[in-house]
């Protein structure tokens, strides 16, 4: 037994100190960092780093002040440290605003202290957010003002190309953050900013509204001078369209053939029988009331022509073209003194001819029958010099 006890030797029953305390305090850290405890440099670095993060998470100003001023902790302080999401110490501190409102003042003091000690206010996280982006959502205006006056750039954008102002305004300003939005706007204007995307959008809408009002005024003046009725301009209650630009952008993605030549199905045709053509011409041409930029007759004649050309024989198409051109020419001469009719049918004939020429499915037949020439002759006989 004596030999066994001698071979085992003394057992070290010393308890390993907790290097990641849940709620570290200055007194606890002062004891653990003292030379008497005997922590290695690596252990001290782990303890100080953990405690520094915890002080920011909880907005613990006394603990943060102790860590940044204590001679034993200072060698292990790294103000540029980031967590797994790339959040810096300032952003971590700002994250806590609103969780405990009674500590918001102390939390703000923590941010100010970190900035004073040299923490980078423009340190981005993994999403490209800097402290100002996070502060715009939760921090009081006083702290945002402090960030702006200590180097935070209001023009820094996230990976999604958003500034701090974009985040709080978006489609509309976040409730309760109106003062923050105003503060950010003024800070950006002082540096030459003229407006963001939302402000630009509102400015464009305002310009379009003013243009619509000006157009209405011009229409009224023209109508009064020429004696043109209000119905010539279309529905007076119709709203001015703000979507023209968006529709144009969508059309840019279409190929030329797809854009001008519809698919060969009945969705792009109007079905008719030869015996119904006189009634169609009466409704579509003779009795049709002209309005500005109304291309319904042109579109209808084009869709009738597609049906006749693609689903019937050449006689159907020829009867349609000849009958339509004769009726249009007759309408011209019967109402030669009415400027609205002349302008309206000049517009519709031009549109009709354009649609027919652009449709590759009709080109061969129309050239063979001389359909293009028949339509052009109306323009030449009435409007030619």
Mind explaining what this structure looks like?
This protein is mainly α and 385 residues long. The chain is built from 19 helices and no strands. It has helices at 2-8, 26-32, 41-58, 61-69, 89-95, 104-116, 131-138, 141-149, 164-169, 178-189, 197-226, 244-251, 256-260, 277-286, 296-311, 314-334, 339-358, 360-369, 371-383. Helix 16 runs parallel beside helix 19.
Observed structural traits:
385 residues, Serine Threonine Protein Phosphatase 5, Tetratricopeptide repeat, elongated, GTPase binding
**Portion in strands:** under 5%
- The number of domains is 2
Oligomeric state of the chains?
A: single chain
Into which percent range does the helicity of residues fall?
Answer: 55-70%
Please report the distance between the alpha carbons of the first and last residues: 132 Å
Examine the secondary-structure arrangement and name the CATH architecture of the largest domain.
Answer: Alpha Horseshoe
Largest sheet: none
The tally of helices reads 19
Structural class: mainly alpha
Mean pLDDT, as a whole number? Answer: 82
Q: What is the CATH level 1 assignment of the largest domain? A: Mainly Alpha
In the CATH hierarchy, the third-tier topology of the largest domain is known as Serine Threonine Protein Phosphatase 5, Tetratricopeptide repeat
Query: What is the overall shape?
Result: elongated
According to CATH, the homologous superfamily of the largest domain is Ankyrin repeat-containing domain
**H/E element order:** HHHHHHHHHHHHHHHHHHH
Which residues sit in consecutive blocks of at least 5 with pLDDT less than 50? 236-259
Overall number of strands:
0
Radius of gyration: 39 Å
GO molecular function: GTPase binding
């Amino acid at each position: 037994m004596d030999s066994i006890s001698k071979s085992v030797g003394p057992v070290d029953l010393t308890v390993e100190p907790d290097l990641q305390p849940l709620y570290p305090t200055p007194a606890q850290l002062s004891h653990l960092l003292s030379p008497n405890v005997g922590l290695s440099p690596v252990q001290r670095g782990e303890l100080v780093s953990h405690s520094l993060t915890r002080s920011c998470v909880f907005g613990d100003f006394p603990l943060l002040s102790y860590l940044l001023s204590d001679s034993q902790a200072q060698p292990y302080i790294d103000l540029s440290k980031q967590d797994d999401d790339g959040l810096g110490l300032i952003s971590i501190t700002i994250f806590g605003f609103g969780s405990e409102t009674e500590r918001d003042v102390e939390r703000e003091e923590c941010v100010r202290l970190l900035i004073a000690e040299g923490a980078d206010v423009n340190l981005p996280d993994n999403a490209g957010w800097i402290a100002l982006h996070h502060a715009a959502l939760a921090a009081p205006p006083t702290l945002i003002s402090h960030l702006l006056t200590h180097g935070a750039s209001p023009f820094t954008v996230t990976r999604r190309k958003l500034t701090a102002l974009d985040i709080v305004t978006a489609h509309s300003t976040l409730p309760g953050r109106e003062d923050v939005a105003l503060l950010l706007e003024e800070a950006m204007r002082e540096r030459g900013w003229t407006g963001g995307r939302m402000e630009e959008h509102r400015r464009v809408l305002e310009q379009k509204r003013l243009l619509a009002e000006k157009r209405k005024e011009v229409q009224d003046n023209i109508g009064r001078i020429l004696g043109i009725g209000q119905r010539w301009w279309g529905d007076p209650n119709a709203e001015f369209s703000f979507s023209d630009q968006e529709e144009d952008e969508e059309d840019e993605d279409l190929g030329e053939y797809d854009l001008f030549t519809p698919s060969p199905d009945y969705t792009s045709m109007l079905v008719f029988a030869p015996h119904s053509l006189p009634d169609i011409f009466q409704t579509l041409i003779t009795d049709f009331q002209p309005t500005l930029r109304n291309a319904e007759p042109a579109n209808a004649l084009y869709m009738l022509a597609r049906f006749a050309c693609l689903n019937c024989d050449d006689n159907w198409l020829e009867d349609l073209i000849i009958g339509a051109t004769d009726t249009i020419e007759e309408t011209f001469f019967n109402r030669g003194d009415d400027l609205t009719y002349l302008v309206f049918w000049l517009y519709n004939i031009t549109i009709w001819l354009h649609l027919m020429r652009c449709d590759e499915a009709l080109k061969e037949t129309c050239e063979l029958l001389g359909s293009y020439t028949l339509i052009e002759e109306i323009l030449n006989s009435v409007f030619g010099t």
